[in-house]
Design goal:
Radius of gyration: 16 Å
Largest sheet: 8 strands, parallel, barrel
Helix content: 25-40%
Number of strands: 12
Structural class: alpha/beta
Number of helices: 11
Low-confidence stretches: 1-22
Strand order of the largest sheet: 1-4-5-6-7-10-11-12
Length: 265
């Protein structure tokens, strides 16, 4: 997930995005939406919310101007089962043009995937259903292919679901190991303990996740500095597809331009 308060700055990623000329990786500025506002939850706790802005679409323009080609959006209402609350906002984000929108949160049916695609979303993250309904996860991948991204949120090595509010009932790496056979080729892996804490990423964790998955992953959680971005990029494009960053951008730890220069070269 991600952060913000009273400023107008954010970012993201997606399917079919143009390859960059540098590292071959992508930077995903993050926009977390709750009740149509841009917010940040501390480690997924809905009672610990920082509001960064009340117009998510307006926040996309600075990202686009800085050179971002994607934005990663988390529908926090959807994540806790309140489907459709932020659809008008998502539609406006997709209408900005020149920047791809990736959305996760509350994607629990084939119909919902189709609804998001109709709104203009170019990459859709499947989370809770991925862990709890393996038959559905495989069916969705077969039907929608590269439009879908596996989203695994892990706390102490265990899958967390329902907006991080519940244990998903399995080891995170066990789930990662199944993805390729199901047809997934993209994975956002969130280290919940580090998300929003600006404590830095764990490169060894992501190296292990990519090894188990058999394809590169998107880093999510803990980015606090340009050095964290460099540490992820040092793993190489065989390990890292992209990096999501939210709070560090919103709170001025680094500029989007500098982050893009590090990640996309």
């Amino acid at each position: 997930m991600s952060d913000m308060q009273g400023t107008n700055n954010v970012q993201a990623v997606g399917v079919g995005a143009p390859a960059t000329a540098g590292t071959g990786m992508r930077l995903f500025p993050a926009v977390d939406i709750l009740d149509r506002q841009v917010v940040r939850l501390l480690q997924g706790d809905y009672d610990k919310t920082t509001v960064y802005g009340d117009d998510p679409a307006a926040m996309i323009e600075p990202f686009k101007a800085a050179g971002a080609s994607w934005v990663h959006v988390v529908d926090l209402n959807g994540a806790r089962g309140e489907t459709g609350v932020n659809d008008e906002v998502i539609k406006r984000l997709c209408a900005v043009g020149g920047i791809g929108v990736e959305v996760g949160g509350g994607v629990r049916s084939l119909e919902r995937i189709e609804e998001l695609a109709d709104l203009g979303v170019r990459r859709i993250v499947l989370g809770t259903k991925l862990a709890r309904d393996h038959a559905f996860a495989q069916q969705a991948a077969e039907r929608f292919g590269d439009l879908l991204v596996a989203g695994i949120d892990a706390r102490e090595g265990r899958v967390a679901v329902q907006g991080w509010q519940e244990d998903g009932g399995m080891d995170a790496l066990d789930l990662v190991a199944r993805l390729k056979d199901w047809g997934y080729r993209h994975l956002v892996y969130t280290d919940i303990a580090r998300d929003g804490m600006q404590t830095g990423i764990d490169p060894d964790l992501y190296a292990r996740v990519a090894q188990v998955a058999g394809f590169p992953v998107v880093v999510s959680g803990g980015v606090s500095s340009l050095d964290d971005l460099r540490a992820a990029c040092a793993l190489g494009p065989e390990v890292i597809e992209g990096i999501i960053t939210g709070r560090a951008l919103y709170e001025g730890s680094f500029s989007l331009e500098d982050a893009l220069a590090v990640v996309e070269g």
